[in-house]
Amino acid sequence: MENDIRIYVEEAPGQRRELEAPTDMGLSLMELLKANDYPIQAACGGMALCATCHVEVLAGPALPEPQDAELDMLETLPHVYEGSRLSCQIRLHPHTDGLVVRIAG
């Protein structure tokens, strides 16, 4: 469809799965991952209160800077990466086309 973008999930080194996502529904990356059966708990329902949707952004377009609530939750994690983000805080827009993430675990 014309409003769809592509997000890539690295499942293993060198192995990426392409996900197609609409941009006209206001979805978050967390919702896309859950809809595609990835093991994302999202215990707080996407409110940046639990960090169970932690992903590592590997490549793609620049994302908006994380807000304080997201940064606070990331600080509670035992392992944080340079590209660590909460997938519930990444909204799918045309400018996120080509984003490459890995589910942190």
TrEMBL record:
<keyword id="KW-0001">2Fe-2S</keyword>
<protein>
    <submittedName>
        <fullName>Ferredoxin</fullName>
    </submittedName>
</protein>
<dbReference type="Pfam" id="PF00111">
    <property type="entry name" value="Fer2"/>
</dbReference>
<dbReference type="GO" id="GO:0140647">
    <property type="term" value="P:P450-containing electron transport chain"/>
</dbReference>
<keyword id="KW-0408">Iron</keyword>
<keyword id="KW-0411">Iron-sulfur</keyword>
<dbReference type="GO" id="GO:0051537">
    <property type="term" value="F:2 iron, 2 sulfur cluster binding"/>
</dbReference>
<dbReference type="GO" id="GO:0046872">
    <property type="term" value="F:metal ion binding"/>
</dbReference>
<dbReference type="InterPro" id="IPR001055">
    <property type="entry name" value="Adrenodoxin-like"/>
</dbReference>
<dbReference type="GO" id="GO:0009055">
    <property type="term" value="F:electron transfer activity"/>
</dbReference>
<dbReference type="InterPro" id="IPR001041">
    <property type="entry name" value="2Fe-2S_ferredoxin-type"/>
</dbReference>
<dbReference type="InterPro" id="IPR036010">
    <property type="entry name" value="2Fe-2S_ferredoxin-like_sf"/>
</dbReference>
<feature type="domain" description="2Fe-2S ferredoxin-type">
    <location>
        <begin position="3"/>
        <end position="105"/>
    </location>
</feature>
<dbReference type="InterPro" id="IPR012675">
    <property type="entry name" value="Beta-grasp_dom_sf"/>
</dbReference>
<comment type="similarity">
    <text>Belongs to the adrenodoxin/putidaredoxin family.</text>
</comment>
<keyword id="KW-0479">Metal-binding</keyword>
